[in-house]
Amino acid sequence: MLQAYSRDEAMHPSDFQFSKLRWLLSIIGVLLYVGDIWTDIGLALKYFADSQYIWTGFTITFVLMGMLVTQIFSFAWYWDDMNDVLINPEGKSNISGISKSGFAVLHVFGLGIFTRYYHMLIKGYKMIWKMTDSFTAEEIREVHHELFCMAADLSMLRLFESFLESVPQLLLQLYLLLGHGGSVLQYISVIFSFLSIAWALVDYRRCLRRSVPHIREMPLGTPTAVYFLYKVCTITSLILSYSFLLILSVYSTIPLAIIWFLGTIWTHLLQTNFCSSGVLELLYRGVIGFILIFTFFNVKGQDTKVATVFYYTFVTVINVTAIVLFLLLKPELQGSTCLHVALSGVITTCLALGLVCLVWYYLSLHPRGMGQEADEVDDMEQETASTRRLKNFLQP
To answer: By Cβ atoms counted within 10 A, which residue in 115, 231, 247, 396 is the most buried?
Structure first.
């Protein structure tokens, strides 16, 4: 059996380098982000043209919800970085030539994430593609670490956007496709939403581990593949199950709201300390509660074995209940029996595969033993606002 990765494994220089591949993958991330949003906007326009105003409203609401939350957090992080004496020791009123008011305008118009991508890609291009011999080894290492921190901020924002916009959008479109039929554009939207979710999960996990000091990024290959399958399969099974339940009754949104409320309360009881202000912390806890409707994360870096077992036992109950209730209570939709039986098989298979990968990952592939040493070292060093964000964010 594969063994868990440990600190004894050598950290070679590439562990600290923001590679050309990483830079190119960031461009793909931008394209997926744009594609996901524009397909949803296109759907909203189609629904409006077809006088389907309810679906228009839901589609636009999900787009705006994801955009609003990411812009709020992005601007708050820029503000924190400007006021951080370690990041901005001279107390300059701008970053990369943009003032606080300039950043405020950009975020009001929904350009916060694009601004971050622009700064990271420009800085990365100068360092990776145009680097000269004028930099010392320490300077190169610092710039590469800064690039990873910029990428990690983006990955956190994309994770928010994926669960606040892409996941609800995917649920809505599946509900419409299964219950009412659909168009080519809906299928395109489903594909982009799924790709956006998958990308955000893997990118977040790799970037976060790369950016936290003294923690080695887990390599590509088996660990990343198993983690990816665990997350994507369990999320897919839940979204399909929720779709079945919504087809049974739109009042199924009430239990979803209850799950969000309980997740938010649980996050509040854990006393997270991710944000620099109390109001933002409450918003953060509400967002985490929403994410917990669809998947489980280690909210505060603590031992979560019991919570994980409880959560995925609950997920299993939801999946089984959705399949049974749908087959028993919706006989009028069973003119397409083969489709619904196939989807029930997909739910069951995804759940089983996801749980197997969950157990495999945390028993054999999770980088146990790294976090404590990293925390002990970090306690002796001054932390920047960026580093604190990374340490206090959701853990894989």
So the answer is: 231
- Specify which residues 298 forms β-bridges with: 395
What span, in angstroms and rounded, lies between the C-alpha atoms of 389 and 327? 46
Q: How far apart are CA 293 and CA 287, in angstroms?
A: 10
DSSP 292-348: TTT---BSSSS--HHHHHHHHHHHHHHHHHHHHHHHHH-GGGGGGHHHHHHHHHHHH
Report how far residue 238's alpha carbon sits from residue 229's, in angstroms, rounded to the nearest whole number.
14
> What DSSP character marks residue 13?
G
| Residue with tokens 């990271």, as numbered in its chain | 120
Q: What are phi and psi of 15, to 5 degrees?
A: -65, -20
241 burial level (CB within 10 Å; 0-12, 13-18, 19+): buried
Q: 271: phi > 0 → left, psi -120 to 50 → alpha, else beta; which?
A: left
Cα–chain center distance at 277: 22
Residue 315 exposure: Cα atoms within 13 Å on the Cβ side: 27
Dump pLDDT digits (tens) for 329-346: 765 555 556 777 888 899
Per residue in 110-161, pLDDT (tens digit) is: 999 999 999 999 988 888 877 666 667 777 777 887 888 888 889 899 999 9
> Which of 35-44, 148-157, 215-224, 355-364 is least confident?
215-224
Ramachandran angles phi, psi of 218, nearest 5°: -70, 135
Q: What is the dihedral of CA 263, 266, 270, 275, to 10 degrees?
A: 40
Q: Which residue(s) pair with 395 in the sheet? A: 298
Q: Please give the C-alpha separations between residue 101 and each of 3, 78, 106, 247, in angstroms, as whole numbers.
A: 51, 11, 9, 46
Q: How many residues does the chain have?
A: 396
**Residue 65 identity:** M
